[in-house]
Inverse folding.
């Protein structure tokens, strides 16, 4: 297990508890949500904190391809999102096409520039993400697009 994986294993339970508490506005709930997915084999529910952007009823997030939780979405696309202290049901889609992932990752990082170092992406003088770095990062991540249900 890498150093980053060990840190995430320690921090994620704290983030989950904080985002479920009344203190969530103080704990970055404007950029971090909880996504709950159902295991395709076990039927267990798994909750993961992730950075997100939202446009209308579409929420976008990214995760590492080597992770396991997103694979459940192919069999069970129903998810629950905890956004800004409220739960929302939705349908999720995992996008693996590298060009589509890159097309979504650039705007995502422009909206959440603090996440750029995680992806190894820097910005040019005009504040645009470096296209070559975005393309390289896109081959290692999955775009998760969630449509919120009414």
């Amino acid at each position: 297990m890498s150093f980053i994986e060990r840190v995430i294993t320690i921090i994620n339970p704290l983030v989950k508890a904080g985002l479920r508490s009344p203190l969530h506005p103080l704990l970055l709930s404007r950029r971090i949500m909880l996504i709950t997915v159902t295991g395709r084999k076990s039927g267990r529910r798994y909750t993961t904190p992730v950075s997100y952007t939202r446009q209308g009823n579409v929420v976008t997030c990214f995760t590492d391809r080597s992770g396991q939780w997103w694979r459940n979405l192919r069999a069970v696309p129903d998810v629950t999102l905890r956004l800004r202290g409220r739960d929302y049901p939705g349908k999720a889609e995992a996008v693996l096409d590298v060009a589509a992932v890159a097309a979504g990752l650039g705007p995502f990082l422009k909206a959440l520039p603090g996440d750029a170092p995680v992806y190894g992406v820097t910005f040019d003088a005009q504040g645009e993400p470096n296209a070559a770095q975005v393309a390289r990062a896109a081959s290692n991540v999955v775009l998760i697009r969630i449509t919120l249900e009414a």
